[in-house]
Amino acid sequence: MMAAEAGAAPNTLAAYRRDLTQASERLGGGLAEANAQALHQLGSAWAPLARASVARKAAALRRFFGFLHGEGMRADDPSSALPRPGGPRPLPKVVDKGAVEALFTEIERRRRESAPGALRLSALIELLYGSGLRASELVSLPRGAIAPDRPFLLLKGKGGRERLVPLSDRARAAVAEYAATLAPGAAWLFPSGRTHLGRVRLHQLVKELAAGAGLPPERVSPHILRHAFATHLLEGGADLRSVQMLLGHADIATTQIYTHVDARRLVDLVNARHPLADKRPRRIDRAQSDA
């Protein structure tokens, strides 16, 4: 159902399968017959986990019991006993423009020295930061997905949703230079063995690059570069709806978290540009006020 009707992405299906399997094992294989008390105990066992992990596990089980109830396989839906962790959604981690510049400076150094993998790394980072692709979207690009004369990429992203991703001139140039080194007939833009580059290896490459650029590796990842893409666009004046489309978010509420990252700049903007910014409040004489 999740694949055919909800159009869930492979990563989502894998996560749901893993959460359901683990929950079933904890309940001795009786997940489908579990009552509210059993689910409450299951939720209590999740207490040491992070809020996001608990929310994901609970969502998977709620979807599961909702399906059983909707299909008539159960007369009730006990999922109300599952925890609903509250609290604000954490702000995305972002690197500033100086850190991004340091990454590209390190890439350029490697390119000048003809370091192994420099051209591939250049293409990867240009697409991560220049187009905001997800790691899974990037590594699985087909060989012919990006053409030198086409300034956009038609991408099928999370949940099978298609979106048009603009490509900068420098990103297309970096990809074209790298693609010229690929073997004829390569199926993937970033091949590795019999398939394409893996997400884990991509994370390793980005962290190695960060270390070479003098940045703390734990502060830089493919997803953080995607966050930086969105945040720096908003800083540059892009509107929220456009950024939502570029990132492929189904709900604009997901995109709105980026508006809080640069809150200090927004405060400074109001103080500097608002019509009343240069007008000081009129001082009221205390004697007049008392009168």
Structure characterization notes:
The chain is mainly α. The mean pLDDT is 83. The chain has helices spanning 10-26, 36-45, 51-70, 97-112, 118-131, 135-139, 169-179, 199-212, 222-235, 240-247, 252-255, 263-273, 286-290, and strands at 152-156, 162-166, 191-192, 195-196. α1 (10-26) packs across α3, α4 (97-112) packs antiparallel against α5 (118-131) and α5 (118-131) packs antiparallel against α7 (169-179). The chain has two domains: 10-81, Tyrosine recombinase, N-terminal domain (DNA polymerase, domain 1); 97-266, Intergrase catalytic core (hpI Integrase, Chain A, Orthogonal Bundle), CATH 1.10.443.10. The protein is 51% helix and 5% strand. The protein contains 13 helices and four strands. The strands form two sheets. It has a two-stranded antiparallel ribbon with strand order 1-2.
